[in-house]
Write a structure and sequence with these properties.
This protein has one helix spanning 130-136; strands at residues 17-20, 24-28, 36-38, 49-51, 63-66, 77-85, 88-91, 101-106, 109-114, 116-119, 125-127, 141-145, 153-157, 160-164, 175-182, 187-189, 192-196, 201-207, 210-212, 215-220, 224-226, 235-237, 240-245. With 254 residues, it is mainly β. The chain folds into 2 domains: 17-31 and 123-245, no CATH class; 36-119. The radius of gyration is 19 Å and the shape is globular.
């Protein structure tokens, strides 16, 4: 998607956008049964292999994010898989930081503390043009809006969205469902949303919406955002957010 902040724009929808009004958008990538999981063992800085708690369908050449397990938000790391043997994955370069996987016992209670690992690769990619998106923090977005229950439908699953969202702009989020009302037939699931400049998924004035098993990495502001607290009966489950950064151009809580 191409445009800059100075480019012409559509009222309500803006630019660098797929805008849906009284319509249907369908984006369906190959199903990835496990979008994120956890480390089975602690890995130290310099390690070139990680072992996960379960087998996955992740393959050589795919990109993963390994979450920080320290108090430093920027110790999350991105690597490519170069080899796989069972639950053990070889990385394209050594890790810079330690990532823990251990269980702490407090009295009779066991607390597992295991670093998360998320898959960023999907076979369908929606992105802002790389150079101008990053330089201006002005990425692509998808906005689904039309007044009235079920008047627009958005089914987006197992898609990779990167260089998305537009910083310093209200309403310009990577995936934005806006004032549609009841949306029984819409969902966002299994996607990888990363390098975003304005949140990840925003729902505003919608009901019965499903946000399931998504990965968000390196985002600015709220990641999975329910806008007015007037939204009801929405279902958010199995999503992860890694390396969320503050944004000083939106709400105070961002």
């Amino acid at each position: 998607m191409h445009s800059t902040v100075e480019s012409p724009y559509l009222p309500i929808y803006g630019n660098k956008v797929i805008g849906v009004r009284f319509g249907v958008i369908e984006m369906h990538g190959i199903v990835r049964p496990i979008t994120w999981t956890k480390l089975a063992a602690t890995v130290n800085a310099g390690a070139t292999e990680i072992t996960l708690v379960e087998d996955t369908d992740w393959v050589v050449g795919e990109k993963i994010a390994i979450a920080t397990t320290s108090f430093d938000n920027h110790e999350s790391e991105v690597r490519y898989i170069t080899a796989k043997s069972g639950n053990t994955y070889t990385l394209d370069s050594p890790l810079e930081f330690r990532h823990i996987s251990e269980v702490q016992t407090y009295g009779d209670y066991e607390m597992p503390m295991q670093g998360e690992v998320a898959l960023l690769t999907r076979n369908i990619v929606y992105r802002g043009e790389t150079e101008t998106s990053k330089a201006g923090q002005y990425g692509a977005h998808i906005m689904i809006h039309s007044p009235g229950d079920e008047s627009s439908i958005g089914r987006i699953e197992y898609v990779e969205l990167t260089d998305v969202g537009q910083a310093f702009k209200l309403g310009r989020y990577p995936l934005h469902y806006h004032m549609i009302g009841t949306v029984h037939n819409s969902y966002v699931r299994g996607n990888a949303i990363y390098h975003t400049y304005n949140r990840a998924v925003t729902i505003h004035g919608v009901h019965y919406f499903r946000i399931i098993n998504n990965v968000a990495f390196d985002t600015m502001g709220h990641t999975y955002f329910v806008e007015d607290a007037a939204e009801t009966k929405n279902y958010l489950n199995g999503n992860i957010a890694i390396q969320v950064k503050s944004s000083f151009s939106l709400l105070g809580t961002d």
